[in-house]
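Quarterly update from the structural biology core.
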Amino acid sequence: MWDVLLDAFLDTLKLSWILLLFYILIEVIEQKIATKMPTKLKSDYAVAVGAAFGIVPQCGFSVLASDLYSRRQITLGALVAVFVATSDEALPILFSHIGESGVWLKLLALILSKLILALIIGYSVDLIYKSIAKQRLVKTEEICDGHSHESHTHAEEHCDDVADAENIHQVEEGNGDEDVDVHKGCCGHHIDDKKQSNVKKYIVHPLLHTLKILAYILIINVLMGIIVYYVGEERLADFMSRSGALQPILVTLVGLIPNCASSVVITELFLGGAISFGSCLGGLIVNAGLGIAFLFKANKHIKENFAIVGGLFVFAVVIAIAFHYIIPKF
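Predicted structure, tokenized:
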């Protein structure tokens, strides 16, 4: 048992310097582009921009996207694109194992898959909403102009309902002087806080985040080591292989947990060969870090929030099951 604990500690320690360098790089990227994100997401290429921003590791961008959507400053398609593209801690962990056989291919496949899927679902959502909005607008004009046989009271109620539905997807232009809240990272610090020193921004925060993720990885390595020690690798592999379509669903449910730990668990299981690429992909599609949690805090339309999360989960499960059988081993 002591060998299991020692191996888990040494395996985790090997990743420390790589993760620290990666998080310093990410911090620099966040500081440089976080304040530009609101403007870019209001452009005609909002979905593509959202997917590109989402690929950058960390959950900060998904939090900012939720904030912008709650203000109706970006479309639903752009929000979903950010959520789908976001992988939270998956990419840093994969990158830290880059020297191992086949990890480069796994990293590339994950990035490309999430980017393409984010573009597809993002543009599809906006296209569907625009079509629905157009149909509702025509119907609303007919009712409100008195071309309907409905009662006056019922017509007014219908107009109000449709107007509310239109506002859910409407993107407000706003003005250039409007302040947009800078987002918080997983460690709770504000991006683009001019009062903070460069040492605190680029050294302290990445170091704290590295220690936090290393703690998660150590716990997972210990648990996996204990399971393998008592259960055996062959039995564990046999259990996973027999789980069939249940595995992608279970992993996707784990991905819904709004915490860095869920993406760490999914990625470690994928690297260890315990779950398929499809299961990993499904879990990371719904794993928008704190973005989903912040959506429920910022957006007052509770039913809409559940619809977004529910739709995202269904999409993730379908993709997970499909890839689970298309690419059973990776």
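The chain is about 75% helix and 0% strand.
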